[in-house]
Design a protein that fits this description.
Elements: H1 3-30, H2 34-66, H3 70-105
Length: about 120
């Protein structure tokens, strides 16, 4: 591959990474409920991290073939391991947040405690 083609691929991947990172941040600030925020935060930022790591790995592969050196190989190994860690912890965090919000939804509101009413059984005006 030529250096110009690699540069174009890197710029596109970095632009995608920054774009999806921005979408994730804006989604966390704008969405009203926790499930929408969780979905935006996990999915958009995961795509952002993957695009940025892929750009780094492509740059390292190109540098290995043109310049040589073991530092690029080490970077690729660390980047892949860190990406696996990010994906795994992203899924764990999403699952924990979902479990905590489902527990919070089962808590009775304070005005119905002791009144004998079930939540949602009052007449809606």
């Amino acid at each position: 591959m030529s250096a110009v083609l690699v540069d174009i691929i890197l710029y596109v991947l970095l632009f995608i990474g920054v774009g999806f990172g921005g979408i994730g941040v804006i989604g966390l600030m704008l969405f009203p409920d926790i499930r929408s925020r969780m979905f935006t935060g996990t999915r958009a930022t995961l795509i952002s991290c993957c695009a940025i790591f892929l750009a780094g790995i492509i740059f390292s592969l190109f540098s290995i073939f043109t310049r040589g050196g073991t530092q690029y190989t080490t970077f690729i190994v660390y980047a892949v391991l860190f990406l696996i860690l990010v994906v795994f912890l992203n899924q764990v965090a999403a699952r924990v947040i979902l479990q905590q919000t489902s527990k919070m939804n089962h808590i009775l509101p304070s005005d119905t405690i002791g009144s004998g009413e079930k939540p949602g059984s009052a007449e809606k005006e």
